[in-house]
Design a protein that fits this description.
By secondary structure, the protein is mostly helical. It contains eleven helices and no strands. Keywords: Membrane, Transmembrane, Transmembrane helix.
Length: 192
């Protein structure tokens, strides 16, 4: 049985070596910036949604490349919590049948729903990485996408991915500040 202190040490080590998932957030920021550009194109809404699926698929390979640049570690074989980050990330794939339904029946709401799913999936990372900014981002992005989706005209749907991009930039900044603020604790955990 693992004590609460050992459990927290495992979480701290994960947050330290993964740098609070900053590589994924930066990758998502770039991907949502590209999605914003897609939604400014003079194409039918359904075509923009279709392209969005493919652009979104770039997140994982881009995060892997950024992990090399940032020096983050994805594999900690001795840490039983290590797979949890990836499992939480992949969990959003189970919402894709809903996304496909929206894409096929209500394409004008596709980017809003995709944004809500993206934002909402951040919530458990607030606990995993001990980074409350994830919880704030989950609510802000999900709620903001809903408000924009209900109020934006079809010509202004690019505001939704633009809002997500700006929100992710803010989240990345907060995660970086949190990582720097907790540097002494992270330094101790990095020696584990």
């Amino acid at each position: 049985m693992v004590s609460a202190q050992q459990f927290d040490s495992l979480r701290l080590e994960l947050a330290t070596k993964a740098k609070n998932g900053l590589d994924f957030i930066l990758a998502a920021t770039l991907v949502w910036a590209a999605i914003t550009l897609v939604w400014t194109l003079p194409l039918p809404i359904a075509t923009r949604g279709f392209i969005t699926f493919f652009v979104g698929a770039l997140t994982l390979p881009l995060a892997w490349l950024l992990s090399k640049a940032l020096g983050t570690v994805w594999a900690l074989p001795h840490n039983p919590l290590q797979p949890l980050g990836l499992v939480l990330n992949l969990a959003q794939l189970f919402y894709f049948p809903f996304l496909i339904f929206v894409f096929m029946r209500y394409p004008q709401h596709f980017v809003m729903c995709y944004g809500i799913i993206t934002g909402a999936h951040f919530f458990p990372y607030a606990w995993l990485y001990r980074a409350p900014a994830y919880g704030v981002a989950a609510g802000l992005i999900s709620g903001g996408c809903l408000v924009l989706g209900l109020t934006a005209t079809p010509a202004h749907l690019y505001l939704i991915p633009g809002f997500i991009t700006v929100s992710l930039m803010g989240l990345a900044g907060l995660l970086l500040l949190g990582h720097r603020r907790n540097r002494p604790a992270y330094a101790a955990a990095a020696r584990l």
